[in-house]
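Lab notebook: predicted structure, single chain.

Context: the supervisor wants predicted structures on file for every construct in the current expression panel, including those that have not yet been purified. This is the next one on the list. No modifications to the sequence; it matches the entry in the shared construct table.
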Amino acid sequence: MKLVYLANFRIPTKRAHGVQIMKMAEAFAKRGIEVELLIPWRFDGLNEDPFVYHQAKKIFKIRTLPNLDLLQWPVGKLGFVITTISFLLSAKFYLFFKRYDVLYTREPLSGLFFSNFILEIHHLPEKISSTYKYFFKKAKLIVMLNNFLKKEIAGAGVPGNKILVFPDCVDLEEFDQNISKETARKKIDLPLDKKIVVYTGSFSIYDWKGVDVLLEAAKSFGNDYLFVGVGAHNEEEMKQLEDRYPLKNILLKYFIPHQSVIWYLKAADILVLPNKSGNAISVWHTSPLKLFEYMAVQRPIISSDLPSIREVVGEEEVFLVKPNKPEDLSKAISFLSGEKDLQLKLAANAYNKVKNYTWDKRVAAIYEKF
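Prediction complete. Output recorded below exactly as produced.
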């Protein structure tokens, strides 16, 4: 069996979708399926081996297709659509001469040129138009991250038996490693004598990630705590946050390759996922990769109490707090820091639960629908 994964994204990339796409392709290949990942050519990109950068086994092929890339200029939504269609046309021409059994994609516009494909959806427009409904109809299976997304497209007329819900996942082989807190701190030069609170992921690109909530909470603590944020994308973003939060107990780091994230997670006393309310993606649609990575490293987690998070975990696995409330987050950090038994309980429960959320299990559920 041959599967073509059509991904209209830069690969490798600093964004989390790069990890998700590469891990899914790897998991399909591990089932004995011949996998070819088709990606667009882009003007700018990381000059790295995508298999090394995203920690994926080199057991599938990646092919870059020519396309019209307008994303370097302020061309707006129209430019994005033109760029996407040019990539899909290139893929259509390339695949016209190829044999394959399954087409898998995260691009709804694939419905312009293909039928009977598997469509994975991570977000939906505010209003599901008749055009989107047409694309949904052409897909033989739609993979959703959570039941809130499923409810929305079911309301648009998509039959329930055509929808598979499975959240994002984690590679346990990559994150379930026996690394002590002390070893991790020495590796990345973090102090051994402080209580360290860690956040990994985007900073200001997506305001709903809530990094500002975490940094506001840091104001309530002295220098016996260290708040570490890993994920700044550029100097401007870093400078803005450092100027806004000139605190000695805050350490901000630039984005790092995925294979290095584990050292910061293992170095932590507490991991924080401070997603905000007020944004539909944050509240209903997201399935944060960081949540599953946090769960896999066996460290206690404090998370915003949002429907998207409760889709996966509850109070037995994470310490839930009201979103958008720095004062509530600081109280939770202070309380949990002194509760060693609770820390161990939450970490153990989260670790046991995340064993159900691996890329291999996700692909197995999709494979059953082929």
